[in-house]
TrEMBL record:
Single GO MF descriptor: metal ion binding
Record's protein name: Endothelin-converting enzyme 1
Family: Belongs to the peptidase M13 family.
Biological process terms in GO annotation: protein processing
Record's GO cellular component terms: plasma membrane
RNA-binding found in the keyword field: no
Residue stretches making up the Peptidase M13 N-terminal domain: 58-503
Cofactor: Zn(2+)
Length: 782
């Protein structure tokens, strides 16, 4: 199959050249004396040989062609994460490096090594239940009511405003657990350019799972039994710890009944006391600033002063004073209609909201979910893994807010194995818990010389600039966007903040020490103590942004430089490429340009496209909430989006073609994928025009590939993964805003006619259909 489709390009080059009036020469050959480039080319050849199945027809199943031999190998994101974690583990194990590093790096190293030490015998640490019992009792002291499901105590009376305010604030602020209302720190959407540049947002409920689990009947039906059983295991374990006379044969049925009621209460919150995501995509409706007095008049069922007092317990003193004592302080109520409905129904004698006993049980359950790692259940790994899998960062996902309350990181406590050399759970905790100290040790290990760091950042900056220019050229040619809207788009591009690799301050010892000056754990503390102090420190950083004199820092990197990801932040109009992803197999300065643009170019183009999706167009060039697209252009965008929604609605991988992707749920990521590959391809073409073609691969099997074909193969390698189980695929389709990997490749390529040309695909083949969606282009399909 490969010979019929690919080799005419290479085998008949002379004939093709003779028939080419321009006389375009063949691509140059690789100079064997260039050892760096030769090594990089061989690495990519090795990747292709590992994954590509040339017996398949790329025109009718490019996924099977590009990824058919992957077997049980990890996706590129996992491969690179593994490589990075090895570098981090090596640095941490280097005692000479650590002892001479600044204090935050020493703390990061101890954070990891103590996690490894303590979790190796975790049951000993948590076995007597003292840690989880104390957390429950501390909350009980705020609520003044023990957990009814365990104690048998309860009251039908609603919680007083004073108690409810303190309880909700305590859970979000001190226990890192958002519940009935959720606290988020973000930029001041309407006025980010003046102080105070940040604001506190009070949002709708945060549940144990994402809302689609509850709002889609099939998802809830599938997940409910596991959810009830897991929660019952946690609560019954706690009950036995707190009551030595607990009799399972008598009390278990009642306990399970109350847990089931509490989780149905959670289902009720999702379905009757939550705004749909499709509505929440319109941000202006969620900006409703209020003072404490105004909120108290509108929603008196919560004592808002008590709420803020408990919420800001770890905030700097000047922020606490400003929030609690300054009448000018305002916070943003994001869902006023929902909050009003809760207030009305909570006092409804007909029980529309649910009983107070059930509500209180649910608050305790949410606390236990956050602290499940401290519950000595019989199968600790099962509970921790179930939470860990939910909290993994999705690759290429939009970050919805600048800062959210820090949650402890839950994950399986892996042992250090010979094949990895690191503890994956502990390293995850290190990467995201002490993200900049971790990034410092990572960068010191990966690029010891500043000159190499500078070269990397400069190379990637030039690379990204070409992608930006290419996206602007796409906008230039859009027939459905008028000139005034294009000017707004150009302003976003010209004002875009580009964060490359890592924030500058982390490589400066003085600046890094100053950043971590309030992280006070010692190098003798145990892991439980360290975790609590790290969480308090990150909470302190989040709420420190609420200082009334603070202006928005648009170069805030926001997340961990040590994570294999990238993100666009509309509130800052910034795009960030962490150093962790700026490596093979995504990027290497010695790769063929087609390979870099097919992989890392797709990543950059994907994130940039988010600046211009239905959410991105609501934010101006410096991050203010200010829609710049006019109604006619918005209508054109919606026509494009509707085509993509309908197209992906018809991708049905399960149940004999009857269980399909939700095109509306996945539209943002699908449009970003489609726009991303187009801008990446244009950037690649610009690179060729500026610098010429790269040599072909020095390999008898893959040397016949054109650079255009390598571009698409590189794009597919980003998403290649082993075939997920039907259950896992079903869950992803039900709740994930990303389409499954195979359909990210299929949907993107079938809409892109350059793929058809690259692989000589006949019109009407699966990956080159007769008609397709025109995403961010007004081009006519040839």
């Amino acid at each position: 199959m490969m010979k019929n489709i690919l080799n005419p390009v290479s085998e008949n080059w002379k004939e093709a050249t003779n028939n080419n009036p321009l006389g375009v020469p063949p691509p140059p050959t690789l100079n064997p004396q260039d050892t760096n480039k030769t090594s990089a080319y061989k690495d990519f050849i090795s990747l292709l040989k590992q994954n590509v199945n040339t017996t398949q027809d790329p025109c009718n199943d490019f996924w099977a062609y590009a990824c058919g031999n992957i077997g049980n190998n990890q996706q590129s994101f996992g491969v690179l994460t593994d490589k990075n974690y090895r570098v981090m583990a090596s640095q941490i194990a280097n005692s000479n490096y650590v002892s001479n590093a600044p204090l935050p790096v020493q703390q990061a190293a101890h954070h990891y090594t103590q996690c490894v030490t303590d979790t190796a015998n975790w049951n000993k640490t948590i076995g007597d239940g003292s840690i989880i019992i104390k957390k429950v009792q501390d909350f009980q002291n705020i609520l003044n009511i023990p957990m009814p499901a365990i104690s048998g105590q309860g009251s039908g009376k609603p919680l007083s405003p004073d108690v409810l305010g303190s309880a909700l604030g305590y859970l979000s602020g001190r226990a890192y657990t958002n519940t009935l209302v959720s606290a988020i720190v973000d930029t001041n959407w309407k006025h980010p350019d003046t102080a105070p540049g940040y604001a506190l947002y009070v949002d709708q409920s945060t549940l144990g799972e994402d809302n689609p689990y509850y709002q889609k009947p099939v998802a809830w039906q599938d997940y409910q039994p596991l959810y009830i059983n897991t929660t019952f295991l946690q609560v019954s374990t706690l009950a036995k710890l707190m009551n030595p006379n607990y009799n399972p044969s008598i009390q278990d049925p009642l306990l399970r009944s109350q847990i089931t009621q509490a989780l149905y209460f959670e289902w009720n919150l999702a379905n009757n006391y939550s705004t749909l995501d499709s509505v929440r995509r319109h941000y202006n409706r969620s900006y409703n600033p209020m003072t404490i007095l105004e909120a108290s008049a509108a929603y008196p069922f919560i004592n808002w002063a008590n709420y803020l007092d408990q919420l800001l317990v770890f905030a700097p003193q000047e922020v606490r004073s400003y929030a609690l004592n300054d009448t000018k302080f305002k916070f943003i109520i994001m869902e006023p209609v929902v909050l009003q409905k809760i207030q009305t129904d909570m006092n409804d004698s007909q029980g529309a909201f649910g009983s107070q006993q059930t509500f209180i049980n649910w608050l305790y359950i949410r606390l236990l979910q956050t602290n499940s790692m401290y519950i000595p259940v019989p199968d600790q790994s099962f509970v921790i893994k179930s939470v860990s899998n939910k909290q993994k960062h999705s690759p290429l996902s939009k970050r919805p807010k600048v800062k959210a309350p820090t949650l402890p990181t839950f994950r399986p406590f892996d042992s250090i194995t010979d094949d990895t050399g690191y503890n994956g759970g502990c390293m995850d905790d290190n990467v995201f818990g002490v993200q900049y100290a971790n990034a410092r040790l990572f960068i010191d290990g990966l690029y010891p010389n500043q000159a190499d760091r500078d070269v990397l950042r400069n190379n990637v900056a030039q690379f990204v600039t070409l992608i930006l220019d290419s996206f602007q050229s796409m906008l230039n040619q859009l027939g459905w966007m008028d000139q005034s809207s294009k000017q707004g788009a150009y302003a976003k591009i010209s004002n875009l903040v580009k964060n490359m690799a890592y924030p500058d301050f982390i490589t400066n010892d003085t600046s890094l020490i100053a950043y971590y000056q309030n992280l006070t754990f010692s190098l003798t503390d145990d892991y439980v103590t360290i975790s609590e102090k790290v969480n308090q420190f990150n909470q302190y950083l989040n709420f420190a942004l609420l200082d009334k004199n603070k202006v928005v820092n648009r170069i805030d990197f926001l997340s961990a430089p040590g994570t294999v990801n990238a993100w666009y932040q509309p509130e800052l109009n910034s795009i960030s490429f962490p150093v962790a992803i700026l490596q093979k197999p995504f990027y290497d300065p010695n790769y063929p340009a087609a390979v870099n643009y097919g992989a890392m170019g797709l990543v950059g183009g994907h994130e940039l496209t988010h600046a211009f999706d239905d959410e991105g167009v609501q934010w101006g060039p410096t991050g203010a909430l200010n829609t710049w697209m006019d109604n006619n252009s918005s209508s054109g965008f919606q026509t494009m989006a509707d085509c993509v929604i309908n197209e992906y609605n018809h991708f049905c991988p399960l149940d004999n073609g009857t269980f399909c992707i939700d095109g509306s749920q996945t539209q943002g990521e699908n449009i970003a994928d489609n726009g991303g590959i187009r801008s990446a391809y244009r950037a690649y073409q610009s690179h060729v025009a500026l610098y010429g073609s790269d040599p072909q691969l020095p390999d008898p099997e893959f040397g016949g590939y054109t650079n255009d074909q390598l571009f698409f193969l590189s794009f597919a390698q980003v998403w290649c993964q082993s075939q997920p189980t039907d259950d896992r695929l079903r869950t992803q389709i039900l709740v994930d805003p990303h389409s499954p990997s195979e359909y990210r490749v299929f949907g993107t390529i079938q809409n892109f006619p350059q793929f058809r040309a690259a692989f000589n695909c006949p019109v009407g083949s699966k990956y080159a259909p007769n008609s397709s969606c025109q995403v961010w282009t007004s081009e006519v399909t040839p």
